[in-house]
Amino acid sequence: MSEIFAQSAGLPRVRRRSARAQGGLSLLGLLFFAALITMAVTLALKVAPTVNEYLAVKRAIAKARADGVDVRTIRAVFDRAAAVDDITAIDGKDLIVERLPNGEHSISFDYEKRIEVFGPVSLVISYQGETGKAPADRAPH
Questions:
Q1: Stretch 39-50: mean pLDDT
Q2: Is 50 among the domain residues?
Q3: Is residue 16 part of a domain?
Q4: Which residues 6+ apart lie within 8 Å of 60 measured at CB?
Q5: Does residue 104 lie in a domain region?
Q6: For residue 126, is it within any domain?
Q7: N or C: which end of the chain has fewer CB atoms below 10 A?
Q8: Domains identified in the chain, total number
Q9: What pLDDT is attached to residue 12?
Q10: What confidence tens digit (pLDDT) does each residue in 74-92 have?
């Protein structure tokens, strides 16, 4: 009856699909996607603390550059900031401190963090950064 009404009203004819032709997510597909999402969330939760530590290192070297007047003082300021922010990946002695021609210092670092994923599989992230050089010493981009 509805088809007759649709034809008389000038509406397009709607065809019903059989239950077999309808698509959707099967139970196996649902379990597969749930496993993928679980693995991605687990990996993100394992990586997040290392990213947080990297950002803390960047803040600590910026503070060390601002407060330090020589290499020894810069490393000591970094070590104090590392103790407060619980930075364990790098120490003050691992920093590369260079004196710039204008009298300021450039501080850089480079370290790797290994994250155990499962079994023999590990994720290695290489972190590096630098406080930056004076504008006259920077290479053009």
A1: 95
A2: yes
A3: no
A4: 78, 81, 82, 85, 87
A5: yes
A6: yes
A7: C
A8: 1
A9: 67
A10: 999 999 999 999 999 999 9
